[in-house]
Every structure is written in C-alpha cells, then in structure tokens.
Amino acid sequence: MKYELLDSGAGRKLERFGDYVLDRPCSQAVWRPSLQTDVWRKADGFFTREDGNHWTFARRLPESWTCEVGDVCFKISPTDFGHVGVFPEHELGWNWMAKRIADSGRRPSVLNLFAYTGGATMALAKHGCEVCHLDASKKMVDWAHRNMELNHLEAAPIRWIVDDVQKFLLREKRRGRKYDGILLDPPSFGRGTNQELFKIDNNLLDLLDMCIDVLSDNPLFLFVSCHTPGYTPLVLTNLLGQGLRGRGVMEAGEMVIRSGQLNLPSGSYVAASF
Predict the structure, then answer these.
(1) What confidence tens digit (pLDDT) does each residue in 102-120 have?
(2) What is the pLDDT of residue 191?
(3) How far is CA 35 from CA 40, 57, 62, in A?
C-alpha cells in the first residue's frame, strides 16, 4: 500500500504507512488540523517527545511492515527517535534526478551521501544508475539492503559503504574517482564510524567543496536537501553557488508532502544541473 499524508496541524502529522496510521510530531505544522479529532484518535501509533521519547500503540503492530513511497518499496519500522525508515518528502528529489537522467540518455554513476535507508539509492538504481550508497551507520546500510531486496534490485550495480562522509570523499579525491551525480541530505548533527563529529554549521561548506572535487568532467547534477531550521532555499543556494562559482543551473525550493488537506513543508533543497 502507498504512503499518504492524511492531515497535519497543532504541531503533529497524521500519516498512513501502508496498513497502519501513525501520529507523530511536526514542528512546521503550526495551523489547525483539518480533520476531526476522532479521526486522529483512530491512529494505530502515537509518538511523543514529552517526558522522553516514546510510542503508544492502540493495537499490537508488527515489528516491521512495507509501504510504497512513489515507486519505491520500504521496510517500515517505528524507531526510538520517532522515525520509521523513510522521509516521504525526498520523493521530490528522486523525481527531479530521474528527469535529468532520462533527458541525458546516459547511465550515470551517482554518489548518495548520508544515504539512510536508501530511498534515493533504490529510485536511482531503478533508472539504471550505478550507485555508491554511503552512510556512517551499519544498521542503516543493513536496512537499505532489505529495501534493495524488497525492490528486487539484487542485481543492480550498487556499491555499499559504511564510512564517515568527509573521510570517504578525501580518499575518493586521492584515488581520482569521479561521479556524474551527487546527492546529500546532511544532518544537523552526526557521528561518523569512529565518532567523527559532523555539525552542519561548521562542516557543510567544506563538505560541498569536497563533493564538487569528485564531480566528473561532464556531470549531470548535484542535489542537496536539508531539514535543519534556518537552512532556507536561499541559504542553500548561496552556499552551493559559492562552491560552484557560476557552474551549472541552480534551482531551489521547499520539499513538500502533498495532502488532500494542507500541504506540509518538510525542509529545503537546492539542485544544480549541468
């Protein structure tokens, strides 16, 4: 079954992930909910960060189940942080990259950084790309492997890497390895495989320079998405524009989850096509 944003408001979002409906916090949803309270009360799971992170379930849910976002199938599993294994707003980026790939007539090599459970990896592999999937968490890379199986992509040319992003990029530069496309969704704060500290305010500029260093001589795109408050489309455009120094055609905007009620803004993106 498909993902669906049912409603949002009062700092919450009500989402259907396949067979189950979950009610989770959402700081952007400052408006009133559109649906009646009794609809929200029927949610199968409720997550809160008040008095510590915890879930409350109206009935016994399986440890994991499946759900489709766009044309990608995901393993869904509620985590202690309130995440479930997919950020549906990223479908915008998958569609943007798919169009560039289709228009190019090429089978590009693409580097997916901070790749999480592999939504973009699966979407790109479905379009014939050779993908390098990198995340510092082995648990997330294992989850992405499961998503690969769910999407029947075992034979796809996917290279799986568990590593610190910055250290990996420096090694790729020394090796002379290049990529036709790069996408990244950096966290506000994170740790590498050896507890290397990543803070977006301190490290994003250098990270973008490292990405540009490993773009091929005839690249297709560089796509950056971000959920950190304050990193607006204009901020991301300024950051990437300085690094590219006039190369490429840039576009930027909000990532949005569409709904039959009110659409939900969910972070920013900037994309450069060449």
Answers:
(1) 999 999 999 999 999 999 9
(2) 75
(3) 8, 20, 27
